[in-house]
Amino acid sequence: MSLISKLKAVVRQTISPPVKPVTEFDYPTLPWIDKKDADIDGFLRQREPVTDLPYDLVEKMRFWKANGYVILEQAIQTAWVEQLWREVEELIDQHQKHQTLVRVDLPAYTQKPVQPVRDVPKEVLNGPYIKFMDFHDNSVIGKKIMLHRNIVTFLSAVFNDKVIGMQSLLFKYGSQQATHQDFAYVVSEIPSHLAAAWVALEDVHIDSGPLFYYPGSHTLNKFNFGNGIFFNGQSTRDPNDFANYLDKRCQEAGLKRKTLLIKKGDVLLWHAALAHGGDEIRNPALTRKSFVCHYSSDKAYRHHRQLPTAEPIRRTINGADVFVNPHMPDQEDIFDAGKTL
Q1: pLDDT tens for residues 228-262?
Q2: Tell me, what CATH number does 272's domain have?
Q3: So which domain of life are we looking at (predicted)?
């Protein structure tokens, strides 16, 4: 072989072909319930029966498959919801003591939107455009709500696997976020193995910027950010393009937008690809206290997103796991009043 031929061979071996962008969920790895031939009755017959649920599991799973969401009425105890919000108020009032991360979507924070809560003034923390990030790390009751039996039982059936709590967000006011689908921003190791819970920490008012959603939108073709279905630093299209695409496609498909007006303790569970967002806050005096949690399956989320090279430390509740924050282990469960609930 000539020198030129040898060099060409080395180049062929060392230069990888370009990675083809992901433009749709991989069908073989979809959760079983998302496949065309999913037999819900047959699936549940093979599982150990679950009793004492405040909802009909078969009915809810059928509704989920058709619509991409379910509502669990009065799924979380009032005492738990109230304890969680007391802890949030303590976090805000004594923010200088804490390291919990908060995202501030205000012009003054554009360069550094995510900061420790101790570095953000109390008047900002008490206002809109704030997301308290992963407070469940700090709170026993936050973990108990995130991995509540009523939530875990349903999602473990959807995934046919152990449920893993990935992350959480706490809101005092409505998010006013444009239409989106979570999988574009919250990425599991198997992207279709993703679901979320929206826990109402107070009754939701129509003027408080309630969540809205498009039933059935989880079956639409995915939006391409120019480099695939995930939004990142290489994307050539942005969240506004994403929102415009979803609103237009939902309208073309005849999907009706619904507004979530639920009561304190109710839970909305939704599919990774359900199009949803936060409506306009028409009365700025109204709060919309809520706790949002994202979930995956054990086979699809094996490592903490902040330290993917290490085996995570797990906390187990109701047969589901949540990982200890590897960067703030000293902040774990510092709000521990939930131990007695």
Answers
A1: 999 999 999 999 999 999 999 999 999 999 999 99
A2: 2.60.120.620
A3: Bacteria
